[in-house]
Amino acid sequence: ISAWVAIHPDDRVVLRIPQSELGQGVTTALAQLLAEELDLAWDEFDTEYFDAQLNRQQNNVYVHTATLNSWSSDLLFEPMRRAGAEVRARLLGAAATRLAVPVGEL
Predict the structure, then answer these.
(1) What is the pLDDT of residue 28?
(2) Phi, psi angles (nearest 5°) of residue 40
(3) I want to staple 45 with a disulfide (CB 3.0 to 4.6 A). Which of 12, 13, 59, 80 is the partner?
(4) In which residue ranges of the chain is pLDDT below 50?
(5) Measured between alpha carbons, how far is 46 from 12 in angstroms, rounded to an integer?
(6) Is the pTM of this model over 0.85?
């Protein structure tokens, strides 16, 4: 659905993390941001690290990919929140179209 989130035909959701985990909790913190926007429980998604080639092809879609101390959450809070909100809006829009109801009813 986007560079940040993949939803597979079996409903498996994968959240892509553009930082390395070096003990600073970035995988948990950044996944939590996306999961919160998408209303996902912890057992409803997996995480994986970003694809550097995709990042290059999409003009640095992941914004900050260097792991620098504990800055990962700080630098990526807003981009990941926006990505999650965009994915949620796309899913709600598609569902509203399919069900022929206003988005506000979902």
Answers:
(1) 87
(2) -105, 140
(3) 13
(4) none
(5) 8
(6) no
